[in-house]
Design a protein that fits this description.
Layout lengths: L1 H39 L4 H15 L2 H14 L4 H15 L1 H12 L3 H17 L2 H28 L15 H18 L2 H13 L5 H23 L4 H36 L4 H20 L3 H11 L19 H26 L12 H17 L7 H24 L2 H7 L3 H19 L3 H31 L5 H32 L6 H12 L2
């Protein structure tokens, strides 16, 4: 009996490992396509729910679907009500696992057949790279699921007639509540409602529990998944916490509804099946109450979203509100959010620069230097937390480019507060003309739609400022040597010239790195020498 229990426990372990391998492999294979599908087919809460269900059913990971939805909301591609549709639909998509277990695992007995495919999947994972390796990992995980089911079934079959439904809480209102709590505990411990459902199916097939008891356990397992969602929100951003709250409230509401629908469903299922297939009835019940929950809540998606937004108000700086820690699970989505934040900071800092040169602007007025500096630091910290996938050199270069832009933005922000040098620009007609040129070029470049044209415009400005700095430096030094101008005045004008040159240099480098991010095939090697010349002049 002890060995049978160990076999069942090992089966649960194999199932969990199989799910991990399967979901990780499928997520890696379909990550980009999943993001494309979610961004294209989620225009309404209803389409979002359908897309979320199908996506989750394919990749077998509701968390990956949820994270992608959170990232799209943070980036402005989805509204929160649309994202709620995706999150609700993901709950329906997870029920596919129960159908796979019930039909393929218990009806077809694929455990023995699957053994050789674990070997082939492992070989593919070890011997190859890229998509073949990921496909091999997914195949091995898929087969381990059925091997685990086989062990669970064999282990629990030994308890047939020994453990009976009478050993569990009775089929009463209080008894069902106890079973719901047990189901919640199982999910909290295993961190997988799918493993819990598989165990309930195995116990139901062995006669250890009856249908109402198994259904109550499944309800509890569904509610128990909210514990994981709640944990994920700890230390998260606004969207992560809103998602966690929405998940908890929705699953609890759905669980309460399922609890009271269990009796009527049992009568209907019994009438249709003749009490012949309790395992199919169980997975049907699981899918039914999840789908019904989505149907009932979708018309109320927008009021529900407003409720969640009221419960979880926006916190922290608006400048970095996109940088949600939950999205760090998806490195590419996180990098996209960081890129949008960097672009926003670039706009604000350039507007701040323009205002220092005399342009009228309101974009920066409510933001002091400390707010902008803090936002740059927070963005750097967020980028540091992004894990680069192995051998993904293109992605590594993308992150490096964002770091470079942040560095130049930080330096440009510092230049914006060098008041003495900026004031000196208005006291000399030559410097005033150059400052006016700088202001005019920043205005033109911001209105130019073509990124490469912007870069060329700023590059010409940089070269001009470098040349003017050299020419005027020689002129000013000659005037100082002839005592035509006080030495202190000369040094102030030289500092102002240096300021113009450095500002134009930072503007050029920011745009250059932005363009590299847009063009993955762009090579920076040709600009390294030019950058070195500029730096050497300091």
């Amino acid at each position: 009996m002890f060995l049978s229990f160990m076999s069942a426990l090992g089966g649960v372990g194999l199932f969990l490992i199989g799910m991990l391998l399967l979901t990780d492999g499928l997520k890696a294979l379909a990550a980009q396509r999943m993001r494309d599908v979610l961004s294209r087919f989620t225009s309404t809460p209803l389409s979002g729910a359908v897309t979320g269900a199908l996506t989750t059913a394919v990749i077998q990971s509701s968390s990956a679907t949820t994270v992608a939805a959170v990232g799209f909301v943070a980036s402005g591609l989805l509204t929160f009500p649309q994202a709620l549709g995706v999150i609700f639909g993901a709950n329906v998509g997870t029920t596919l696992t129960g159908w796979l277990v019930a039909v393929l695992g218990f009806k077809l007995d694929l455990g023995q057949i699957a053994l050789p495919f674990v070997f082939f999947g492992a070989i593919a994972r070890l011997a190859f790279r890229g998509r073949i390796a990921l496909a091999g990992q997914a195949l091995a995980g898929f087969c381990l699921i059925f091997i685990g089911i086989e062990h669970m079934k064999d282990g629990l079959d030994a308890f047939s007639g020994v453990v009976t439904p009478t050993d569990f809480p009775p089929d009463t209102l209080f008894g069902r509540l106890q079973l719901v709590l047990i189901g919640m505990l199982i999910t909290v411990v295993t961190q997988s409602s799918s493993a819990g459902v598989a165990t309930a199916l195995a116990a139901l097939g062995a006669g250890a529990i009856n249908f109402p008891q198994a259904a109550a356990l499944v309800i509890g397992m569904d509610v128990g998944t909210t514990f994981t969602a709640a944990l994920a929100t700890i230390g998260g951003g606004t969207m992560a916490r809103r998602t966690g709250y929405a998940h908890v409230i929705y699953n609890v509401m759905t669980g309460v509804m399922a609890f009271f629908l269990l009796g009527p469903f049992q009568l209907v299922a019994g009438a249709l099946t003749g009490n012949g297939d309790s395992q199919i009835a169980l997975v049907a019940f699981h899918s039914f109450f999840n789908a019904l929950g989505v149907v009932l809540v979708l018309p109320l998606a927008r009021p529900f979203a407003r409720l969640i937004e009221h419960l979880v108000p926006e916190k922290g700086s608006d400048l970095t509100s996109r940088l949600d820690p939950l999205v760090l699970r998806d490195p590419h989505a996180a990098a996209s959010l960081a890129g949008q934040t960097v672009a926003h900071l670039e706009t604000l800092i350039i507007e701040r620069l323009r205002s220092r040169l005399g342009a009228k602007s309101s974009a920066y007025e409510e933001l002091d230097r400390e707010d902008l500096a803090k936002a740059i630091a927070e963005t750097r910290t967020y980028l540091d937390k992004i894990i680069v996938p192995p051998n993904d050199m293109a992605f590594q270069e993308e992150l490096k480019g964002l770091f470079h832009i942040l560095d130049h933005l930080s330096r440009l922000l510092y230049r914006c507060d060098q008041r003495q040098r900026i004031d000196e620009l208005s006291l000399d007609h030559r410097l005033k003309r150059l400052a006016g040129l700088l202001l005019g070029v920043t205005d033109i470049s911001t209105r130019q739609k073509d990124a490469k044209t912007q870069e060329k415009t700023l590059d010409r400005l940089r070269l001009l400022m470098r040349r003017q700095r050299r020419l005027n430096r020689d002129r000013l030094i000659a005037m100082a040597a002839a005592d035509a101008v006080p030495a202190e005045t000369v040094w102030l004008k030289l500092d102002a010239l240096r300021w113009l040159h450095r500002v134009s240099y930072h503007l050029w480098r920011i745009r250059l790195h932005q363009n590299v991010l847009l063009d993955a095939n762009r090579d920076l090697a040709s600009t390294v020498e030019e950058a070195r010349i500029d730096v050497d002049q300091d």
